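Below is how a single chain appears once it has passed through the pipeline. First comes the sequence as given, then the structure the pipeline wrote out for it. We keep one example in the README because the format questions we get most often are answered faster by looking than by reading.
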Amino acid sequence: MKDNNTHLGKIARNGRVLVLAMDQGLEHGPRDFNSKNIDPEYVLDIAAKGGFTGLAIQKGIARHYKECYSGKVRLVLKLNGRTNMVPKDDCYSSQIASVKEAVALGVDALGYTIYVGSPREAEMFHDFGKIVAEAADYGLPTVVWAYPRGKHVPEEKSVEMVSYSARVALELGADIVKVNYTGNVDGFKKVVAAAGRCKVISAGGSKQSDADFLAKVKEVMAAGGAGLAVGRNVWQNDNPIKITEEIKKIVLK
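Resulting structure:
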């Protein structure tokens, strides 16, 4: 089967993707940070030194801290966002940065969140459709954060719901889709199959023990995943560079 590695741009290494994510400040708020990692410079230093294939951040961090990451790690700019104060039944992530702004910041890929099953998914589909068209003009890959969410979604992390979300990303033209891990290799294989030539990466999720998290990474890759977008399990770790090296041995080998 034909591969789509050529569409992944500079944020993949031999078809594998390992993104350090720090969009939690907007999406989750200060609760995810302690007195050390609430400073963006701390996390961006990990991104610069860790050998990640990409760094996912919002435009404010990208603009204010450009010298901390530019030329050191590839930029994946999130083009939309929301807080967690909005009820899950009415999830909508509005566009807050344009493709033009992203290009001016030296972006290497465009990130966009879609809540599949939300009553407002049509608005997100419409916005992302325009982004895909503009991304093609600049030769930029797109990464969709695809999360089933809303009053009509019975179980956000079920194989059925996550597979559907992965398929939506493929159908909308994404190059990479980030989804939640479904809990076992067989289930995640179904997600990867549903995504077709759209590469599947797993969200890192909440902080786990090193052993449990590395076991999850191995399962993601065994299921045919292309990698991870990980945040808290790295920059909340007491030794972020050490855990990064362990993750890289599995994902980027």
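The first helix runs from residue 24 to 27.

See the next section for the split statistics.
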